[in-house]
Amino acid sequence: PLLLALKALGRQEGLATERLVYAYRDSTLQLTITNLLGEGWAAGQLLVIRDVTPLFLRIRELAALNDVSALLTATLDLDELLRLIMERIQTVMGVKASSLLLKDDERDELVFRIGSGEHGEALKGRRLKAGRGIAGWVFQHGCPLIVPDVRQDGRCYQGVDYLTGFTTKSA
To answer: Do 146 and 112 contact (CB within 8 A), yes or no?
Structure first.
């Protein structure tokens, strides 16, 4: 497409611009090609490359939020609704598995309510003491946390992975 756009611009008279969007590795790039004029004809081209990855990520996030809001009216079954939402989050984030833990007020524990991915069913109903592991830390401190490599984090609790056979890499 890039060579075709360059050739098409080279044949045009007057000012002309082409815009292309490319996905490259984990980035999205926008290429803007504009004719440089000499005596009314294209004497060359100016290529501007812009990284629009944050914009495309934001668009994906907003689309996911829109999908989730539509799901809220799709079913009255709370477990089904939570499962659908977690599957959508898993797709948007491009991860193999996801889970949702809720607090059991009577026992001051977190309970795996939803588990998706290959070992998701093995998680359901499992319990985690508040404060234990990364999820417990997040619950206890009430603030979000991103952990790219859980094995390098002292808060990591590997007991759930051991029980399910899944290897958590990030949280």
So the answer is: no
CA angle in degrees (0–180, nearest 5) for 161-162-166: 40
pTM of the predicted model as reported, rounded to 2 decimal places: 0.61
Residue 46: exposed, middle, or buried by beta-carbon count in 10 A (0-12, 13-18, 19+)? exposed
Contact criterion met (CB below 8 Å) for 43 and 33: no
At 52, list the tokens: 């629009």
- For 102-145, the pLDDT digits (tens) are 998 888 899 999 888 888 888 888 898 888 999 999 998 889 99
Q: Is 144 helix (H, G, I), strand (E, B) or coil?
A: coil
d(CA 99, CA 158): 15
The Cα–Cα gap between 169 and 133 comes to: 13
Computed over its alpha carbons, how large is the radius of gyration of the chain?
Answer: 24
* Residue whose tokens read 């080279």: 10
